[in-house]
Design a protein that fits this description.
21 helices
Length: 509
């Protein structure tokens, strides 16, 4: 258990570092690039993301969960990813004009062809990275990801500054991939290359084919947003939605990904040792939500300020969308570990059924809503509604491999909700005060004294830099909520070491 905590700590630190690097890049690139630049790259990267699933073929997950892993299986995994990667490169390279024709924009031809080179590079990294994860070597992964992120951001900012527009993001993607390969060869004994063989292809294909089905439907479902938006509303509106979702994805995709990266090998190890996982699952969800819900609540209260702080004033149009996406993220936090749990416990077939049911329905729903209403607001509302309706189904399939103790889960989530209320009390009171003043209450008393808080005297959103001290005020309230509610996080040794200090060799509050 201590090794899992250490791995989780390293993984989270690594994710926080990457988010910090990412925020710096967002801050600068949003001021150097236009919504069209970002929207065009979002559409291209969405298509590439779908193709990446075919390239992966579930090989990474196979290497992590396989009970009897040997050199022949590792070599076969490497050979399969290399073979599939080469096929995907050729396919995307020659299909680029057709895809660009669908979007009626020839700029996409060069973008797709350049990004296709990732398929020749990534297979050299993926097998070794999966083996590092299997061995819980998250310190090495931390340095690999940090180095790659720094290279990618440096390329993107440098080229954007010199006017390369969306091409700066394309070259940044290639730079990130190359940097990952260089770093992997340093940390992984034997480097990036393995023996070429297909002797164990049947064993890997049996698992990989099932994982590929789930990954394909999931990737198409998530990336369909940008693909459909780009076709119906255009690249500029796609960029607006991308930035609104970017606030939510800071936690839903980035922080949660760090947790899932540790959870999958940890769940798989526990399953190999025949341990009961339900208590650990409930505790994991309870701790995840106590971080997620205050995060989403805070940015729902201050969407314009957040967008201006991270991306600049040209993205104000995305402000009304942020609360809807954050609400969807808050719902998803209750079940976001289940897709990781199912394959770790041998329930790949249930994960396949889940994705085959949910993902096509999600794509059809978003396409229909956008076609009928043709507004980004309708898309954002549908995002929330769909998460709410799909959550019971996700738990239904989770119960197939690990029955849920709903009373314990609800009790844990209720504690997280109370802690979130503690944390958000001051930010919510400030928003309420501003709203009351804007409709005439306290007009003669507060207007003159609060004007300095606003971006301009005629607006009712704050100066963006004020988010930093307001967010800092949440921390003591959040800690107090953890202690008062006796949240499971408050019982963690790491929490006690951080919050309490030692006096005379004894732990004192």
């Amino acid at each position: 258990m201590s090794s899992i905590r250490h791995s989780l700590a390293i993984s989270l630190i690594g994710r926080y570092v990457q988010i910090g690097i990412q925020l710096v890049s967002y801050f600068i690139l949003a001021r150097l690039l236009t919504p069209t630049d970002i929207g065009l790259f979002s559409v291209a990267s969405a298509a590439i993301g779908i193709a990446q699933v075919f390239r992966e073929f579930g090989v990474g997950s196979y290497l992590i969960q396989e009970k009897e892993l040997n050199e022949r299986k590792i070599a076969t995994a490497f050979t399969l990813t290399l073979l599939i990667g080469s096929i995907m490169f050729l396919s995307l390279y020659f299909l680029a004009p057709i895809i660009a024709g669908f979007y009626k924009d020839e700029r996409l031809i060069d973008v797709f062809r350049l990004l296709a080179f990732n398929f020749l590079i990534i297979p050299l990294n993926s097998t070794s990275l999966s083996l590092l994860r299997r061995d819980m070597k998250f310190t090495a992964i931390f340095w690999i990801n940090t180095f790659a992120a720094l290279v990618g951001v440096t390329v993107a900012i440098s080229l954007s500054y010199y006017g390369y527009g969306y091409y700066s993001l394309v070259w940044s993607s290639l730079g990130n991939t190359l940097a990952t390969g260089i770093a992997v060869s340093f940390f992984r004994q034997g480097g990036m290359f393995h023996r070429i063989t297909l002797c164990e292809w049947k064993a890997i294909s049996a698992f990989g084919s099932q994982m590929t089905v789930t990954s394909i439907t999931s990737e198409i479902s998530s990336n369909a947003n940008d693909l459909i938006l780009g076709r119906i509303l255009g690249f500029a509106q796609t960029g607006i939605v991308s930035r609104a979702q970017g606030i939510m994805y800071l936690f839903h995709r980035d922080i949660t990904a760090a947790i899932r990266g540790v959870a999958f090998p940890a769940f798989a190890t526990a399953h190999r040792e025949n341990r009961n996982l339900e208590a650990d699952f409930i505790k994991s969800v309870t701790i995840l939500t106590v971080f997620a819900w205050p995060f989403y609540g805070f940015f729902s209260l201050y969407p314009i300020e957040a967008l201006r702080l991270f991306f600049g004033p040209q993205w104000d149009e995305a402000g009304p969308l942020v609360p809807w996406f954050c609400a969807g993220g808050a719902v998803a936090a209750t079940c976001s570990l289940i897709p990781t749990l199912l394959p770790a416990l041998g329930g790949v077939k249930y994960l396949v059924r889940l994705h085959l049911l949910v993902d096509p329905l999600r794509i059809a729903t978003f396409a229909a809503v956008l076609y009928v209403f043709r507004t980004t607001e309708a898309f954002a509302i549908t995002f929330l509604v769909f998460f709410m309706l799909s959550t019971p189904l996700i738990f239904y399939f989770k119960n197939k491999v690990l029955p849920t103790r709903y009373k314990a889960l609800i009790a844990g989530l209720f504690k997280s909700l109370l802690v979130s209320a503690f944390a958000l009390a001051i930010p919510a009171l400030l928003v309420g005060w501003i709203y009351a003043e804007s409709i005439g209450f306290f007009q003669n008393v507060t207007h003159e004294h609060l004007t300095w808080l606003y971006k301009t005297p005629n607006t009712r959103y704050l100066k963006d830099w004020l988010l930093i001290p307001i967010g800092a005020l949440m921390v003591p309230s959040w800690i107090l909520g953890l202690i008062v509610t006796r949240h499971p996080l408050a019982d963690e040794a790491a929490f006690k070491k951080i919050v309490f200090y030692r006096i005379g060799g004894k732990c004192a509050a």
